[in-house]
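for the writeup, i need someone to sanity check this before i put it in the appendix. the sequnce is what the collaborator sent (i think, or maybe the updated version? ugh). structure was predicted straight from it, no edits. if anything looks off just tell me and ill rerun, i have time this weekend
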Amino acid sequence: MLRSMYLKFIESNKDSALVDDSMEVEIIESDVDLDNSDVVEPDYDPPKQMGDPSVGVTEENREAAQVPKSMAMDALLEGKLDTAIDHLTEAIILNPKSAILFASRANVFVKLKKPNAAIRDAEAALKINADLGKGYKARGMAKVQLGLWEEAVKDLRTTSKLDFDEEAIMMLKKVEVNVKKIVEHRKKYENLRKARGQRKAELERLRKMQEAHDEFASMLKDGQVIRIDSSEDLKTKLNAASKLSRLAIVYFTAKWCGPCCHIGPIYTTIASKYPKAVFLKVDIDEVREAAAEWRIQSIPSFYLSKNGEVVHEQLEISMNSLENQIIHHYV
């Protein structure tokens, strides 16, 4: 069945572009239609002071840090974001081990549309307290501003698990729409590339099959009787016929055989009528090894082989009977 399908493909597509991948079109990804309304240009300002976390924080400094923190909250209410940053920086210097101070400054940087600064502070906060929802929110919102949608959605989902924050929830819903589009887009092109890879592999497989077909076909002569020179030559020709799913007729003869002299021309004529069958001629005196392997007791002898198996053997002299058997097994 497989060999038959292969032969049909080869015959229908020989010398066609179907077995040539040179015409493959390069896959060029289209842009994804995303909501980029919250995306901003990255900030590259020098980092604000982060304090020295290796220095122990006294209770006095911890309490002192509450003053600039309170002033920062007042500045936020008045919309003075830069002033709030300055006050929070003062508080961080006094207490560089406070996760909430870093997270607070990170969220102000988000409002200032300085995502890189916000991420730097949010990660400092999370290093101190890995369960700080405010830190994940700041980092998630900052990554939204950088268009890092898949990273942003992870942080915002973590925020919603740790805290109830309406702003984070609203942004999460918005970001999830973009992420869904990105995932679908990526899956689409992954499938296209996979299909292209499979097609290339199939074309390569078919190319090799065609090369094998051509190699086997070159050993045979359509419509002609092939004279066998050795036992190995016989095996090679029969194997080629089997690979091409062709019927092979093996005719054992000898020069001294009277009936063979009469049969020879008829055999040649039959061969011309069935070009897709393989007609082989073995002289038992010249190729004794083959005659021995096939246990030839009398001549002329005919053996019909298909797909590597003998399907008919004929020892009596009846060319009409032989041709009828060829017709029967030819298709």
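DSSP finds 13 helices and five strands in the chain. Residues 1-7, 14-23 have pLDDT under 50 and may be disordered.
thx in advance!!
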